[in-house]
């Protein structure tokens, strides 16, 4: 199958028969072997490097604006003047924003009332939620205190880490067993077998983890592995002269970081990614925190991953569950949306600046995430 063409693949083009699955999983998604064997997307493609004179594409498609808004400056241009906001202005703006997204810490009693007689399931994003945002993605470590907070939570409630990173990478960073791990924005989910019996979720397969323990595995974008690898190599080659650019291969998706690229070169990196993606209509771009994320055009995201984990736990069809999802990024909005719809659970946005969200509550930073997790455990143990 040619993954660059628009035929017979798990893409968004066909309507998804609801009867096929409550999760909206397209039947074609599972027409390939779930383990082993992958389809090559063709010859290694090397888009000729060129320095575009203009950046019309990335200006008109909104990429540049999205890149700028992923890192809002602490000052704003008003009628051509650079106006610095004072600390008071910033605090006032944040405090007004918190009326709409109240602190999950201050609202804890409300959350605990909602959790009464319900099974809590905890979903945690990694970067910016469990670990602070740092310049080098390879140095984004969570603290030992945070690790022990997550470990304690996982002893009390089913817990899943849902990250844009590859599953292996996020597992190495978190280092705790007995959790669900959903890497590549949910396109690579592994969970303990005792929670995910195959008769509960038919689309999972049994596999072994790094320690040889039997686990349940779900890969809705397996066919895209060769294509992502190919695009990753092209991205590395074509961005190698852009100082500060960094490309990561997450197996089912790839990331192009511009956090350490001078802002004047953002159009260059955006145009470079845009030119490569023109050859891959079955891939799309989403924006994260100073990162361009390249992923397959399949109907799968962190929200679907939340639904998948709940279904795997046998908790998707009951009101006796309270899913809590904590995340900081645009890609977490898919999960917040799923929980907001039908008032199914609590989304908690990690942000120290005002931003629109589908979350219900907020915390400022990972240190407040840790306090929230500790408080959940105290509530359970009381
Ligand atoms: O879903 P997440 O777990 O939040 O992963 C999203 C991206 O996280 C990482 O990048 C972000 O964190 C880096 C380390 O703090 C930071 O340098 C970068 O600017 C952020 O975008 C990860 O490296 C990406 O691949 C993930 O897509």
Question: Could you give a short description of this structure?
Answer:
The chain is an alpha/beta fold.
Present the secondary structure layout.
Blueprint: H1 56-60, H2 63-69, E1 75-78, E2 81-84, H3 87-100, H4 108-115, E3 119-124, H5 144-156, E4 159-162, H6 167-174, E5 180-183, E6 188-192, E7 205-208, E8 214-218, H7 225-239, E9 246-249, E10 254-257, H8 266-277, E11 283-288, E12 291-296, H9 302-312, E13 321-327, H10 333-340, E14 346-350, E15 361-363, H11 366-381
Parallel strand pairs: 3-4, 3-13, 4-5, 13-14, 14-15
Antiparallel strand pairs: 1-2, 5-6, 6-8, 7-8, 9-10, 10-12, 11-12
What does this structure look like?
The structure is a single chain. The chain is an alpha/beta fold and 382 residues long. The chain is built from eleven helices and 15 strands. It has a nine-stranded mixed β-sheet, with helices on both faces. Helix 7 runs antiparallel to helix 8 and helix 9 crosses helix 10. The longest helix has 16 residues. It binds ligand L263DTV3. The site of the ligand O=P(O)(O)OC[C@H]1O[C@H](O[C@H]2O[C@H](CO)[C@@H](O)[C@H](O)[C@H]2O)[C@H](O)[C@@H](O)[C@@H]1O has 23 residues, from strand 10 and strand 12.
Order of helices and strands: HHEEHHEHEHEEEEHEEHEEHEHEEH
User: Pairing-aware structural class of the strands and helices?
Assistant: alpha/beta
Describe the global form. globular
Task: Report the mean per-residue pLDDT as an integer.
Answer: 83
State the end-to-end distance. 56 Å
- The parts where pLDDT drops under 50 for at least 5 residues are 1-44, 74-80
Report the total helices.
11
Q: State which percent range the strand residues make up.
A: 15-25%
Helical fraction equals 25-40%
Q: Strands of the biggest beta sheet: in what spatial order? A: 7-8-6-5-4-3-13-14-15
Strand runs, count: 15
- Major pleated sheet: 9 strands, mixed
> What's the gyration radius in Å?
21 Å
Report the bound ligands by name, code or SMILES.
Answer: ligand L263DTV3
For this structure, the quaternary state is single chain
């Amino acid at each position: 199958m040619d993954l660059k063409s628009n035929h017979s693949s798990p893409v968004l083009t066909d309507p998804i028969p609801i009867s096929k699955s409550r999760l909206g999983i397209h039947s074609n998604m599972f027409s390939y072997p779930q383990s082993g064997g992958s389809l090559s997307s063709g010859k290694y493609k090397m888009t000729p490097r060129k320095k575009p004179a203009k950046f019309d594409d990335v200006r008109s498609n909104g990429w540049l604006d999205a890149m700028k808004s992923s890192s809002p400056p602490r000052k704003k241009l008003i009628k051509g003047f650079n106006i610095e906001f004072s600390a008071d202005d910033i605090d006032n703006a944040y405090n007004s924003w918190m009326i709409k997204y109240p602190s999950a810490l201050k609202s804890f009693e409300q959350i605990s009332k909602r959790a009464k007689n319900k099974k809590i399931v905890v979903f945690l994003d990694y970067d910016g939620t469990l670990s602070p945002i740092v310049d080098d993605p390879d140095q984004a470590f969570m603290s030992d205190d945070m690790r022990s907070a997550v470990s304690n939570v996982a002893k009390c409630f089913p817990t899943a880490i849902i990250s844009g990173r590859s599953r292996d990478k996020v597992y190495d960073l978190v280092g705790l067993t007995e959790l669900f791990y959903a890497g590549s924005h949910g396109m690579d989910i592994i969970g303990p077998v005792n929670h995910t019996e195959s008769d509960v979720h038919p689309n999972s397969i049994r596999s072994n983890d790094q320690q040889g323990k039997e686990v349940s595995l779900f890969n809705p974008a397996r066919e895209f592995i060769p294509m992502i690898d190919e695009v990753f190599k092209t991205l590395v080659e074509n961005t190698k002269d852009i100082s500060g650019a960094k490309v990561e291969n997450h197996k089912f998706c790839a990331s192009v970081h511009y956090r350490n690229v001078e802002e004047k070169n953002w159009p260059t990196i955006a145009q470079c990614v845009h030119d490569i993606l023109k050859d891959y209509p079955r891939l799309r771009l989403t924006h994260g925190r100073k990162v361009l994320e390249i992923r397959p055009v399949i109907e799968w995201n962190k929200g679907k991953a939340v639904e998948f984990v709940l279904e795997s736990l046998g908790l998707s069809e009951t009101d006796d569950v309270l899913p809590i999802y904590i995340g900081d990024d645009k890609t977490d909005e898919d999960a917040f949306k799923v929980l907001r719809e039908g008032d199914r659970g609590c989304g908690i946005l990690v942000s120290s600046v005002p931003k629109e969200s589908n979350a219900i509550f907020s915390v400022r930073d990972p240190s407040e995430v840790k306090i929230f997790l500790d408080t959940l455990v105290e509530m359970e143990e009381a």
